[in-house]
Design brief:
Agglutinin, subunit A; Rossmann fold; 34 strands; single chain; disordered C terminus; four-stranded parallel β-sheet; eight-stranded mixed β-sheet; alpha+beta
Length: 540
């Protein structure tokens, strides 16, 4: 296996008192001499290569404590790896722990090329593993570096190399014997060795006597060779996208904003005295900096103070957010709670957010939400994207690279069936496709009105059934005896990786339920609304 190592700095490569990162040359020399023989005793065919993080005009290499990393540094990492992608089997990034989850989230997006419809045209086919440590890997005495065996740094490097040998095709974070999906992680302990966790998604693997990979949780390999980064065409597409991101991400203005108990005043009885709120003043100051995107870290299931507990629309915070959305700011409602799904509509204290245009983040971490929002906002005007505010909002709620649950889709390569009483939902909550135990698949609006039903006359036997989005592109309802009760009639003899998608809204603009073959980029069948002879287009 050919493994490329990108050392960026951080505790793992620091020595001295106070701790200071080794230069790239110093670290590579120590790693070659002290770590490589140990790793090769376990993996005899292991070959190491090194990628320099950054070089100044005078030839000096740069390392940074992760506290000082900025979005442009994420782009540098991706741009450093992409040119040597064909030459290596896996990549290991050594990184400080403070912003490691941010980098892991951002890189998962930066290594994904997007078409205007939001489907990928370039994706990873090899592991990119990020790790670091709470204790340094080396010890320096009298200008001599020695290896510290009794550290999490040593264990994390060894475990990361083991993880890399599995070929998991995604950006991962390895820490304390556990492999996580990178865009699902958060640093949850500042002083213990189990510093990272994945609150809303299972671990991908665990290092023990042997490395055990949870294959069912790992992202699939690229749908077709044409979108794999093994392909020259895919790398060229991603390289062009990365160039745009690198040039423009420093000018993209997005921020997380934490809810906290703060002073507010209600409007005067005669409405002449306006409502005020400290949080509103802070948000106004951010808007004055040309803010384009906002991730609200709300309470609980997505509750955010409006500034008026009795009439949200009269609150100063409501009014600021409403004006922000009118100006084009994308507002994402997340939660400061570590685990759980955002459902702002559960309480009146959060349901008002939809009226100011906020979209829920479901089970995505605030860290991934921020990284994804920067990524999408920067790509709005890239080539033919021409994404409007509503497009970015839709993509924020759409699974791009495993960062968020599938809400409105059944996917051949992911959540691929509905059991009895299970459902998918329109992203704005105005419609639901439920697999009714007595009726089969039924599409209803939020008032309970039936819009579409697969079975015009449900059979006397066979229900409840299961609705499967099959690998041949056919959507099939199987009965309790495994008999076919209904099918979309869309099987394909060729590549047919497909999704059932509930798209749009019952509000003006329209609702669609359709089977989309994303391997071929075509709509196989529209189930709702009935449109005989209509020209079918992909998601937009």
């Amino acid at each position: 296996m050919k493994l490329a190592i990108l050392y960026t700095g951080g505790t793992i490569g620091s020595v001295g008192n106070p701790l200071k990162p080794l230069t790239s040359e110093q670290f590579e020399g120590a790693f070659e001499k002290l770590m490589k023989p140990i790793l090769q005793s376990r993996y005899p065919d292991l070959k190491l290569g090194y990628i320099t993080f950054d070089t100044l005009p005078d030839g000096t290499t740069v390392t940074l404590d992760s506290t000082n990393l900025q979005p442009s540094d994420w782009c540098k990492m991706a741009k450093d790896i992409l040119p040597v992608y064909p030459e290596h089997d896996a990549f290991l990034i050594l990184h400080g722990t403070d912003t490691m989850a941010y980098t892991a989230s951002a890189l998962s997006f930066l290594f994904t090329g997007l078409q205007p419809d939001g489907f990928p045209n370039a994706v990873l086919s090899k592991p990119v593993v990020i790790t670091g440590s709470q204790v340094p890997l080396f010890y320096k005495e009298n200008d001599t570096l020695t290896l510290r065996f009794d550290t999490d740094a040593f264990q994390n490097v060894c475990g990361s190399v083991s993880a890399a040998t599995t070929g998991v095709p995604e950006v991962c974070l390895f820490f304390h014997n556990t492999l996580f999906r990178g865009n699902r992680t958060a640093k949850t302990n500042a002083s213990e060795l189990d510093a990272f966790s994945s609150p809303n998604y299972p671990a991908l693997g665990e290092a023990g006597i042997d490395f055990r990979l949870a294959n069912d949780e790992v992202l699939h390999l690229p749908t077709t060779p044409a979108i794999s980064l093994e392909s020259d065409g895919a790398r060229a597409r991603l390289s062009a996208q990365l160039a745009h991101l690198t040039a423009n991400i420093p000018r993209t203005r997005a921020m997380p904003f934490l809810a906290f108990p703060a002073t507010y005043t209600l409007p005067g009885p005669d409405k002449k005295k306006p409502a005020t709120a400290y949080l509103a003043a802070l948000l106004t100051a951010a808007l004055d900096q040309d803010l384009q995107g906002l991730v609200l870290e709300s309470y609980g299931e997505g509750n955010f103070p409006s500034g008026d507990p009795d009439d949200a629309t009269a609150g100063a915070i409501y009014q600021v957010l409403d004006k922000a959305h009118e100006k084009g700011v994308v507002i994402v409602d997340n939660t400061q709670v570590l685990a759980g799904i955002v459902n702002a509509n559960a309480y009146a204290s959060g349901s008002w957010l939809a009226s100011v245009g906020a979209v829920g983040a479901f089970d995505m971490t605030p860290i991934a939400s921020y990284a994804k929002l920067l990524y999408l906002l920067t790509l709005r005007d890239y080539q033919d994207n021409n994404w409007q505010q509503s497009d970015v909002e839709r993509l924020m709620q759409t699974n791009v690279t495993g960062e968020i649950m599938d809400v409105n889709r059944l996917d051949t390569r992911g959540r691929w069936f509905l059991g009895a009483e299970e459902s998918i939902n329109a992203l704005d909550g105005t419609a639901t496709l439920i697999n009714d135990p007595d009726l089969g698949p039924v599409l209803k609006d939020s008032s309970g009105k039936t819009l579409w039903q697969a079975l015009s006359s449900p059979p006397a036997e066979g229900l409840p059934g299961r609705l499967y989005m099959q690998g041949d592109g056919n959507l099939v309802l199987y009965g309790s005896s495994n008999t076919v009760l209904w099918a979309s009639g869309t099987p394909s003899a060729s590549e047919a990786t497909s999704m059932l998608i509930l798209d749009g809204s019952t509000a003006p603009g329209g609702l669609r339920l359709y089977v989309y073959n994303y391997a071929q980029g075509i709509v196989s069948k529209t189930l709702f609304p009935p449109s005989p002879g209509a020209v079918l287009e992909g998601p937009r």
